[in-house]
Amino acid sequence: MRSKPAPVPTDETPRRAADRIRETAFDLFYREGIRAVGVEEIVSQAGVTKPSLYRAFESKDELIAAYLRDYDQRFCQRFEAPAAEHPDDPKAQLLAYVDRLATRASRDGYRGCGLTNAVIEYPDSDHPAHQVAVQSKQALRERLRTMCRAMHARDPDDLADGILLLLEGSYVSGQTFGEGGPARVLGSMVRRLIDASTQA
């Protein structure tokens, strides 16, 4: 019996094709690295044609920037989610986030923070990937400073930067060591830092 030919990609509506491209690029860029993934692989995995990609995104760089904006939005949702569980308690909110991050970053196959990875892959400050990622990191730094002020830390800016260093370290060490690595102690280290900065 003759096997059926592979389906030919169709563009359906431009909006739907763009969504599929964006979702596919998100998965591939995060899992394999941005530079390692070519346009051909994206359109093949998304089941669309190359012209449909370039109708939705003028270039691969524009698609990369869209991926990082999507990543930033998802990160913000995860970071702010504990606020619903711990209203008016910035310390509890932050600790809930870092405890969940410690669990994720201690699993084999963890790929770290897509924004941090992008800064490493694209060190040129003029590249859209670098710019989107740095803007996100700057916003996180300011958010941490606001939270540390609300905790009445003696030096909230220093505390925020110390916590940010621990977060960034967990993103990278999680990829290096996997299960049982240093990221597993993230929560306890953040607690110690906060206690040392807020206790009389």
Question: Would you mind describing this structure in some detail?
Answer:
By secondary structure, the protein is mostly helical. The chain is built from 10 helices and no strands. It folds into 2 domains: 9-57, Orthogonal Bundle (Arc Repressor Mutant, subunit A), CATH 1.10.10; 67-198, Orthogonal Bundle (Tetracycline Repressor, domain 2). Helices cover 70% and strands 0% of the residues.
Salient structural properties:
single chain; 200 residues; mainly alpha; Arc Repressor Mutant, subunit A; Tetracycline Repressor, domain 2; 2 domains; 10 helices; elongated; disordered N terminus
CATH superfamily of the largest domain: Tetracycline Repressor, domain 2
Rounded to an integer, what's the Rg over CA atoms? 20 Å
Q: Low-confidence parts, pLDDT < 50 over ≥5 residues? A: 1-11
Level-2 CATH architecture of the largest domain: Orthogonal Bundle
Molecular shape: elongated
Question: Which fold name fills CATH's third level, the topology of the largest domain?
Answer: Tetracycline Repressor, domain 2
How many domains make up the 3D coordinates?
A: 2
CATH structural class of the largest domain: Mainly Alpha
Helix content: over 70%
Number of strands: 0
Annotation field: number of helices: 10
Structural class: mainly alpha
The end-to-end distance, rounded to whole angstroms, is 80 Å
For the largest beta-sheet, the strand count, sense and barrel status come to: none
Mean pLDDT: 92
What fraction of the residues are assigned to beta strands by DSSP? under 5%
Order of helices and strands: HHHHHHHHHH
